[in-house]
Specification:
Length: 152
């Protein structure tokens, strides 16, 4: 099971990030490659407490599905809506200079996986509270999902 807690998995995922270019075409969805890089960075920053994100309002079944989503042996499906604060066409961080945005994402991944960590995890806006093991698995799966979206 791949997780950002594993050094080799982290190297693999970071190498995949470095293989994305500003013109890399998407296979599905609306984001372009630059928006995807900023989306991933924003998602990490949100759970690190550096970007405010509102939790799902009303009936939220995601916490009940958390373990299945994180640990079942399948790829995440395309088309799951993101929170508006993490959508680069709404409240997410707009892309700036691609190489600088990639460097920022890689630095944020390093901070997210640092030991000791310089922050306390905030609740996930859909899943709620998660363990460190869950966070490291989520981080890998979220990145894998979007890198696969761009064929890397």
């Amino acid at each position: 099971m791949k997780t950002l807690a594993d050094v080799e998995c982290r190297r693999e995922i970071c190498a995949r990030v470095e293989n994305v270019g500003p013109q890399t075409p998407r296979r599905w969805g609306r984001m372009n490659a630059a928006q995807m890089v900023c989306h991933l960075c924003d998602a990490f920053l949100a759970v690190m407490g550096e970007k405010p994100v509102q939790p799902v309002r009303g009936l939220n079944l995601w916490p009940l599905m958390k373990m299945w989503v994180l640990y079942a042996p399948f790829k995440w499906p395309a088309g799951v809506p993101t929170r508006p604060e993490l959508d680069q066409t709404l409240g997410g961080t707009p892309p700036a200079e691609f190489a600088a945005d990639v460097r920022r994402l890689l630095a944020v991944i390093n901070a997210f996986t640092a030991d000791p960590r310089g922050f306390a995890f905030r609740p996930h806006p859909m899943f709620g509270e998660m363990s460190e093991k869950d966070w490291m698995r989520w981080g890998y799966l979220h990145m894998d999902h979007h890198l696969s979206q761009f064929g890397v």
